[in-house]
Amino acid sequence: MKTNSDFRFLRLTVLVALALRLLVAAMAYGGRDIVGILWPRGIEPLGIAKSLLAGHGFSSPFELPTGPTAFLTPVYPLMLAGIEKIFGVASKSSAWAILTMQCVFSAATAAVVYYLALELFDRRIAQRAAWMWALFPYAVILPTNIIWESCLSALIMVTGLLLFARTVRSQSLLHWAACGAYFSFACLVNAAFLLLLPILLVWLFLRTSEYRRRTVSCAAVFIACLLPWTVRNYMVFDKLIPLRDNFSLELWIGNRDGATTEFTPNIHPAFSTTEILEYQRLGEIGYMSGKREQALNFIWEKPLVFLANTAKRISAYWTLNLHALWLLVPVLSMVGLIGMWRLLQRSYPLTWVFSIPLLIFPLPYYLTHPDLRYLHPLQPLLVILAAYAVADANQKKKKTYIQ
After folding, report:
1. Predicted model pTM
2. How many Å apart are CA 260 and CA 315, to the nearest integer?
3. How far apart are CA 332 and CA 349, in angstroms?
């Protein structure tokens, strides 16, 4: 039950979180060329936004004109285009408006973290989780460091799981339909959400017949809401592209001779003159087809290298990003996964609402290449699990002390 104390707590937590993030932005960019610093950190969505405003449609994610694109899903470029329509293309005002928007997304996540934690635990753990998110160094810095959908994706993830956990208790088909529509919106923000709702629904469908009619209606709405974008892609490219088509490029970046677990900007068309010229010459579909063929040939010819690299990518994704130690990213991952393990051991109610995203969401990055921001949508869940792990450890210490 929501109380006045909940709202007072969340108002304080969210305001502190927002103030911290804006303070970091002010310290980072005060008196500096904010556009010159940030625009190279958001080339693709900003490029599409520029094309939209120039009347060229959803196209040209890079510096050179390359025609219609499905390199990204539509929501974030459209949001950036809206901001630049108001504040000016590549203007200082637009840069600050975008950073403020991302900071608001990140700060608001603290409130949803609180309510999702309440679905499983008590207020003490929920409050601890909300404060952990508000103060988590990486969550404080990321909104001001890059122009990307990462902060919105984190908010969408935790909000979606809160909505799903509450929908499971509802018999209303309208609630289930709303859940399907919400997750379709999530996919149009970040294509990595595509498998999440279907797997959650399959889990429910197989567990009991009680949910079968509701899960089918939810899935139907989910698919129907994604169809317009899929149809657009088919009409533009004469090829079935459900959401975006850049997976082949990312697969090649992580699966080629000399590939590491790090992103390699000098071979990406956003940063490489050679690659963008090839992209322009072949067209998006031709370019992606070539990269897919190269990546699959490498995997086929060197399966043991692929498996070894995949193991490295899994480790790097979760815990071995030691260069981010000062941001506490590996610490949060390890403590959060310990919390997940403890919940599984105890067969805690709704544990599967946490475990399925942790299993499903990272799969594309295990095959391609990990990056700190790719883990960010899961970090609100890890914060909740870490808060539980700390509370559980403290409880054990108290019991040991009493004995």
Report:
1. 0.95
2. 13
3. 23
